[in-house]
Amino acid sequence: MAVRACGLIIYRRLQPAPSSKVTDSIEYLLLQTSYGTHHWTPPKGHVDPGEDDLQTAFRETQEEAGLQASQLTLIEGYKKELHYPVHGKPKTVVYWLAEMKDCNTEIKLSEEHQAFQWLKLEDACKFAEYEDMQAMLKEVHEFLCSRE
């Protein structure tokens, strides 16, 4: 039985400089775990009994980053599943895409994380060590760029 987790890729748009492209103003939220290898990841967590996947993604985002569902806009048309082994067992993580309504909203970390960063795509990919996470961030960025 695969472990199942769900989360949100959260981004914000800063006010772009007049000469820059709109997509240059996008930053992604990554949290650094306070356990293990202290890897960087979007907010995510295991599905609780009786919960659907999207409920899990919003609950975990609230628990890990202090963000309420009402502070986010879920972006239609993007959902991604990643599959990888953890401690020898298969794991599935489902991600949706969400935009911060107010880019100055405070992030409040839980004990599970020790730091957070808002990062442009290139830096987010450097922080996210795993290739599938880097690929997903690039895919999200392309998706957002295609909607401009």
Automatic annotation (TrEMBL):
Cofactors that this protein relies on: a divalent metal cation
Catalyses which reaction(s): a 5'-end CoA-ribonucleoside in mRNA + H2O = a 5'-end phospho-adenosine-phospho-ribonucleoside in mRNA + (R)-4'-phosphopantetheine + 2 H(+); P(1),P(4)-bis(5'-guanosyl) tetraphosphate + H2O = GMP + GTP + 2 H(+); a 5'-end FAD-phospho-ribonucleoside in mRNA + H2O = a 5'-end phospho-adenosine-phospho-ribonucleoside in mRNA + FMN + 2 H(+)
EC number in record: 3.6.1.17
Family membership noted in the UniProt record: Belongs to the Nudix hydrolase family.
Name of the protein: Bis(5'-nucleosyl)-tetraphosphatase [asymmetrical]
GO MF term list: bis(5'-nucleosyl)-tetraphosphatase (asymmetrical) activity; nucleotide binding
Keywords assigned by UniProt, alphabetized: Hydrolase, Nucleotide-binding
GO biological process, one term: AMP biosynthetic process
Role according to the record: Catalyzes the asymmetric hydrolysis of diadenosine 5',5'''-P1,P4-tetraphosphate (Ap4A) to yield AMP and ATP. Exhibits decapping activity towards FAD-capped RNAs and dpCoA-capped RNAs in vitro.
CDD domains: NUDIX_Ap4A_Nudt2
Record domain Nudix hydrolase: where: 1-141
Chain's gene name: Nudt2
